[in-house]
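Standup notes
- HV: blocked on the assembly model, inputs below
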Amino acid sequence: DGGITQSPKYLFRKEGQNVTLSCEQNLNHDAMYWYRQDPGQGLRLIYYSQIVNDFQKGDIAEGYSVSREKKESFPLTVTSAQKNPTAFYLCASSVGTGYGYTFGSGTRLTVV
Amino acid sequence: GDSVTQMEGPVTLSEEAFLTINCTYTATGYPSLFWYVQYPGEGLQLLLKATKADDKGSNKGFEATYRKETTSFHLEKGSVQVSDSAVYFCALINYGQNFVFGPGTRLSVLP
């Protein structure tokens, strides 16, 4: 079955460390997205990519970085420059911009 | 820019009650409208969608009608169950643009 896989489901980071969240899709979707969700809050767009080897900043890109070397993969790195990284991170994909999204099951990142 | 407004939550209902979650939007052009549902600790799942005016989306007993004249896409269900407890997001998308999500409405259904 096609879908999006995010890993790990739970991730703990020490202050000052970079961590990378994985997002893989086998839907043959061109576009991929990263969102951040804080408790009781809505979704905020971090980065998105409409095609391999290209990506754009979303509303809250500071302290994050991404790469899109393969169509199937869109990893997100939370750097030490992100001052408040504890949150629930959601990855999504779509056929292209203007179409509905398929979401992964999320990664909960906690700074310890 | 485009925006989505949802009724403030949380919404608490007894099992078998009627559910309405209001959603209104502001957008240029002719957006497609969506409802997504998020169960605790999980990602968002598509619940239903409508792509043009007067379309009705439906799934799992939930319904919503695309009303262009009132720029609304209210979610309804005739008889809610405890298993419907979740956060519901209204969203819109215009061709060539990214999704615009509402803030979400938390629904709690009590037995």
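- HV (later): unblocked. The two ends of chain B are 41 Å apart (CA to CA). Chain B touches chain A through 23 residues (CB under 8 Å).
- Next: hand off to the docking folks.
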